[in-house]
Every structure is written in C-alpha cells, then in structure tokens.
Amino acid sequence: AVCTSRFWFNYRHVANTLSVYRSVKRLGIPDSHIVLMLADDMACNYRNPKPATVFSHKNMELNVYGDDVEVDYRGYEVTVENFLRVLTGRLPPSTPRSKRLLSDDRSNILIYLTGHGGNGFLKFQDSEEISNMELADAFEQMWQKRRYNELLFIIDTCQGASMYERFYSPNLMALASSQVGEDSLSHQPDLAIGVHLMDKYTFYLLEFLEEVHPASQANMNDLFKVCPQSQCVSTPGHRTDLFQRNPGSVLITDFFGSVRKVEITKDTINLTSSLKPLIQRSGSGDMQIESLTYVDQLPVAEIIHQKPKQKDWHPPDGFILGLWTLILLVFFQTYGIKHLKHIF
Amino acid sequence: HTHLNYKLGLTLQNRTSEALTPAAAARDEFQEELVIRPLHSGDIYASFQFRTLWDTDFLQEGQKVSHYRLFPKSLGQVLSKFSVRELHISFTQGFWRTMQWGQPFIPSPPGAELWVWFHDTVSDVDGNWKELTNVLSGIFCASLNFIDLTNTVQPSASFKPLGLGNATDHRFLRYATLPREIVCTENLTPWKKLLPCGSKAGLAVLLKSEKLFHSSFHSQAVHIRPVCQDEQCTSKAWELRQTLNVVFDLYTAGQGKKEWSLFKMFSRTLTEACPLATSSKVYVDITDNPELSPATPLLSQAVVLGDRRTYSVYDLSRAETFGQLRSLNLLLRWKGDGEMLRPLLHAERYVAGFGLQTGEIHTVIYNNHPYRAFPVLLMDSVPWYLQLYIHTLTVTSKSRDNKPSYIHYQPAKDRHRPHLLEMLIQLPPHSMTEVTVQFERALLKWTEYTPDPNHGFYVGSSVVSALVPSMVAMNTNFTQDQPLFSSFVPVKEESSYFVRVYTEPLLVNLPTPDFSMPYNVICLTCTVVAVGYGSFYNLLTRTFQVDEPSLPLAKRLANLIRRIRGVPLLT
C-alpha cells in the first residue's frame, strides 16, 4: 500500500492508504506481509488537531491510523526507485526483512497506489514520476523471477486507467478509480481538520470491505461494481484480460485476506508469583577478580592532555606530489644526473 | 554391581555441580517505574523507566545465547551480531524547555539520536555502523537508514560510555542525529513490544498514543549498556532501559487548571503491576507540597540532579495500593506560586545574518551558579553544506575573550563528512558565554535537494556536557533498590553531577533553484526554434503547387456528362 503525496492538503491520500491497510489487517494479513509506504506524516503532523489519528469519515467517526500500525517506508524514503526495488527485490543486502517483499511464486499480491496522477504517470512526492511503462516492466520482471502467483493492482488517482493500459504479464488484474481523461474526486471535507478526508473511490471501497469478513464468498465481480458513476462521478475501470481465471470465481479474500495456522492449546503456564531479585554471587575463592568500574563522564584533566590521534601515514598525492616532482625535475635539469652520486 | 556404582557416581556429581553454581539458569530481572513531577508552569512531567537486566555476558568467549527470557530477542541478536558495547537511541518530538521545566531525568535532542560504542574486537566499525542503522530502522519503523557517513561523527571527548569499562578509545564511538525525524504511533508500537509485559499489564497500559502525542514534549529512548551484576561488581550483566518522557501542557491537555490525574493524562488508570516485574512503583514529587490523593504512607527521599526531592511512593506489587475499586487513579493539585530552582546550566543556539549566502551560528551557554565556575564540553556537528569559517570562531564570556583549554576540530569534506567541533570551555560564575562562528551556504546539486527544499535544512542540536557543582551531596553508593531515575548516570563524586544539555536544532534555508526551470527552458527553446528557425526554413525550402479545389457533387456529374460530350468543363 503506497501513498505518494506529501504535504498536509494531501491528507486524503494517506487516509486512503491507511484504510486499505486497515481492511487488509482486519482480514488476517499480518504486518510482516505488508509493506506500507507513506510519503508524509499526517497523524503526528503539527497541523493535525487530533494527534496520532487519521480519520476517514467526517465527524471523526473512524480512526484508520489506530494503535498498532507499522509503516515500513516513510517520508523521503518513498521514491520511485525504492518502490521498484521493493517490487523487483533488488534491495541492498542490509535491508531489514520488514522492508522487503518476500514473495514467491505461490503468493497473491495486492498493490494499492494513490496520489496525484495523469495520463500515463503517477507523481511521487511532487518531484518525480513513475510511468505506466516502468510499472509494466517491473511486473514483467516479477513474473520472470517468479515473484507472484496472481497480482491485483488497484489505483486511485486521476486518469488511473492509463496506468494499467500497458501491462503485458500474465495473471494481472487491475482496477482504477477513473478512466483516461477523467478526474478522481475527493469525498468529504471535515471542518475541524480542514482538509478532505478521503477520495470517493476508496471511501466506497472501504465501506464495501468493512462488510467482508474472512470467510466471505464475495468475488471480484462484486469488487468491480464498487462505486458506480452515480456515487463516484468518475467511471471506475478494470482490466481482466491478462488474468487466467474467471473473475467471478476469484474470492476477494484471495487478495485481501489470509488464513493463518493457529494451534489452540489448553495448557496454562504459571508465572511464578514473586520473583526474587538476583541471587548474590560470591566470588570464587582462587582467582582474584578485580571489580569493574564505570567510566568518568567528563575527565577534564585527561581531555586537556589528550594527545592528537596518530593519523595513518599515506604517501603524498595530488598537489604535493606534483610540487615535489617539479622540484626534483628542476634540480636534475640544472645539475645533471651525474651529480646523483653525491646525494646517495 | 557396577551399574549401582555408576548411578551413585552420577548423583554425587550432580550434587557437587549444584554446590558450585547456585543458580542453574540465568535469571533476568525487570523493574518498572513512573515518576510524576508537577512543573512550576502548570505542566506535568511524567517519566517512565523500564529496566530489563539480562544476566549473560554474551561478549565473552564461548558464550552463545539461544534462550531469551525477558530481554527482547530482536535486540539481543542485534547486540551480539554487531559486537555492540553500548547503544543509545532516542526519538523525540518537541524541545525540552530547560528554563521553564528544569532539567529532565534523561535528556534528548529533537528528532532521532543514535550513538553506539562498539567493542574493541570490531575491525570495520563503519561497516558495522551502516548495517546497524539499517537493522534498527526496521525494528523501530524509522528512517534511520538515512544515517550514513555524511551525518555521522566520531566525538573525541564527549559521549563517554555510561556503562562499565575502562578503555575509551574513541575510534569505536559513532554518533549521529536526524533532526527531521518524526515520532508517531508507528515508533511507539515496536517500542512497547520490547517490554516483557508488552502493553497489557503494569505501567505500560498507560501508554496510549492519542494522549502521549498530544503533548508539548514526547521522548522515547532505548539505552543498552553493561552494568554491575551485583554489589561487588565482579562481573557484567547487560541492562536495557526503555525510557519515555512526556510533558503534558496545561492548556491543550489540562484545560487550564493545575489539577491533574492519571486519567486526565493518559485516559487510563492502573489496575495491576506487571507479573514479571520484581518492582513496580510510582513516585510522585511532593517537594513543593501539592495536594495528592489517594494518600500513601510510603515516602522516599532522593538526591537527583543536584537537588534533594521528596517523593510519595506507590508500590503496585502490593494489592492495597489499588484500594477497593481495584484501580489506582492519582489526583494532584498544586498552586504553583513561589520560586522554581533555577537550572544551573542552560544553552541556546540561533542563526544570525541575512540573505542566502552567509550567516553566523551563535551558541549561548549560561552558567547560573552564583560563585562557582566549571568547565563544559561543547560539541557541534554541522553538515557539510554549511561551510564553517573556523578563523572567525570567537568565544566570549562577560565581554572578554575566553580561550578554550581543548579544541578538537575536524573539517568537513564535501558530501563525505560533516564538521565536528569540540571545545572545553571554562564558564565563569553567573555569566553568559557566547560562541560564534561564521558560515557560508553551499549550492547543492539539483538531485540532492529534498522534495520540499523550501522547508529548509536542519542542523542537529549542539551538545553541552558538564559536571555541574551540586548544592547537595550526591549519593555515590550503588545499591540494588535505588530508584531507577537516580541511577541512570553513574555518580563518581559527591560534589557534582553530570548533566547534558541539548540546544535547539537550526533550520537554515539553502539557496534553492527553481525546479521547474528545465521544463521552462525546454518549452522556450523549442518554441523559439519552431517559430524562428522553422518559419525561416519553410520560406526557403517550401514549394507551391496549384491545387484544384474539389467541386460539389452536382457539378462533378455535370462535368462527367460534358467530358463525354467533348464540351469545356465547369470550374
């Protein structure tokens, strides 16, 4: 789930992403399987009248930020390069696991993008763009490296349908909030917070997903019907030609939810009621162990008399080398080579 | 017969081994504590400390740890993999106002701060540092991966280890700050998960993000260091301290009345102690005689930060603390008139000058002690794009030049290293010392600007470390049942206490180009080429041909008939 917009007036994009994140977590996908990228911080932004909250419904009904949120990429880390690296898996070796997309050829992946976009591109943080061709190529790389089984791509931007026009890899299904030439509109402003809270398409998508539970049999055709033109003003589009199964037979929980193996046990573990503090250890008799001490925090005398660090000796380079070469050359020019033996 | 002997031998062996090692398994220990201090300005300061003692010296040869009890496994694995001797990381939102609130128990600068002492055996400290920052960014959900060599410094005298040890070779120390880093629920959640009881029992149930972030100051930190295992101090144990300092504002959270309760601060009350804790206590500072209910008979006195304070103690491991309602909600009311103890050391920093080319950084340090002078160590780490002119460095106290007794300056290398300036300055009593240095702003390459460059660029806080002379004798004995807030910094002598003061971070504007210029230039150039050169080219190379206009249908049919007849055609 990626939000690509920065600045306070793009609150609704962060709310969009968080509401999809929330639905996906509610339906069973754990944090270790979710990569959440938020380009700016709205919850603890100084302009937020209610800190640590992001609301999706006006009158502050639903806090989609919640108490248990894990943002993997935030602020300046949300760039086109990082997004493509996460998709294709080409991350530097020291990247922690929570920032990687650890998928294999049996994984169903859901990708949700939101922000400002245009015909064929999506804007990242007001300074760069990702084009639909780049996205299609990234998915092809993922297919060739067997990084997904099936992929559902949802995008909520203006002219969103242009982003999935160029896909050519198999097993991709895409949904967009508006067609080429149409703008996606935002839903409701909240007068206390002062900005629009959600976009129309994601608002109705959230309402639809709130009714889905982990055992629900709703399928993709129901998802395509979310937010018709009467509610959304723009025409949502979808693309299923690259998908091998019939959309009517694909369950929504295939992408939005997951089932985890839970083993129920009836055993109880008793915590010992009073834990005694550490047993005093007596030093062993034969060895004399000296007691350890803490370091002086500001040893003034030691600091004043600190010797400068011995720098490692490097052979001279650059200017100094050129200067010495010049001096030697001039010397040997004036005095000749045969005088060398006087030196050595 | 031999079988019986063998069995006897085994039991004998068991008994002897038991006598040699009294405890078979390593015992971890967990203590939690909350200190509530009403502040003179009407705000209230709450400081949580959670201390987990890990009874293993994993840096010793042959000790391989595979079983973690109370100490979190994620941090334990990080420590052993990177041979970390000490780790201090803090995330802070807001700035600590020393003149209004006094000195904090655990100081921290705004943004994120990370300083690490590596073990002597590490050969590639920079490589370990880079990997450590990446791993920590995953654990704490923060952008700590932006810490690299351009904002890391190696202080030569500040930041001595707070734990056990005698070797202090500063080649193994690394320090970095990210003043821009924000703290929000996504940082609090993994921090809470490191606690043995999580946020389900004990004092951590009070940590609700909606209330904690609606405050003037919020700081959460993790401090890991080796400490004495027992009073003889013959072997090491590892201590993890998680601290959370929060100051609730009188007007935004307190509705303007100097009347606070646990429920008003945290929207929760305490119901039980953490079952895994050996001690779980709440200390309320009653030195200025506020009204406190419910009353408690336990009182304790402690000397902390050079001042003797009296505390009411609520012991949560005793059932009678919770009363009949099984919940503890402290109510505190005070008048707030009278003089506050002035903090003896205070520092400020600001940028002077005008325009986008040059400027001047002023650091002002106040010594409010009436008759004692003491030395302070000032450490400044300035990013490379503010090019400091060290020949303009002046240190003045009481309008006279004050020469520092120790200066360590490491100049910056463009795009590789920041400036590091450390000075040991003697502050005369009751005076103000001003350190000024001029700088010039660099023009960055256009890809190096952040997506919002007009916000400005941050310069991390300066650190002022000092041993301030104390009015009251400090306690140098190390005892196991000392409250946690007084045992954080090791006290070596009675007459002074160690204090670290952070100044404000600076926000400077760098000369910012207009990023739409490449687009404008392309449009303009193409238009000029198309209109000017294009029309000229067309004039020279275009040929004209006569073009027959197409006739309407009726005339075309008439022309067809006329062609057949051989009569001249219509036009």
TrEMBL record, chain A:
Transmembrane segments: 318-337
Active-site positions on this chain: H116, C158
Biological processes annotated in GO: attachment of GPI anchor to protein; GPI anchor biosynthetic process; proteolysis
Record keywords, A-Z: GPI-anchor biosynthesis, Membrane, Signal, Transmembrane, Transmembrane helix
GO cellular component: GPI-anchor transamidase complex
Pathway: Glycolipid biosynthesis; glycosylphosphatidylinositol-anchor biosynthesis
Top-level lineage group: Eukaryota
Keyword presence, Membrane: yes
Gene Ontology MF, one: GPI-anchor transamidase activity
Family: Belongs to the peptidase C13 family.
Complex and partners: Heteropentamer. Part of the GPI-anchor transamidase complex, consisting of PIGK, PIGT, PIGS, PIGU and GAA1. Interacts with GPAA1. Interacts with PIGT; this interaction, via a disulfide link, stabilizes the expression of GAA1 and PIGK and links them to PIGS.
Protein name: GPI-anchor transamidase
Organism taxonomic ancestry: Eukaryota, Metazoa, Chordata, Craniata, Vertebrata
Automatic annotation (TrEMBL), chain B:
Record-linked InterPro entries: PIG-T
Organism phylogeny: Eukaryota, Metazoa, Chordata, Craniata, Vertebrata
GO biological process terms held by the UniProt record: attachment of GPI anchor to protein
Superkingdom to which the source organism belongs: Eukaryota
Protein name (database record): Phosphatidylinositol glycan anchor biosynthesis, class T
Entry GO CC: GPI-anchor transamidase complex
PANTHER family (UniProt xref): GPI TRANSAMIDASE COMPONENT PIG-T, GPI TRANSAMIDASE COMPONENT PIG-T-RELATED
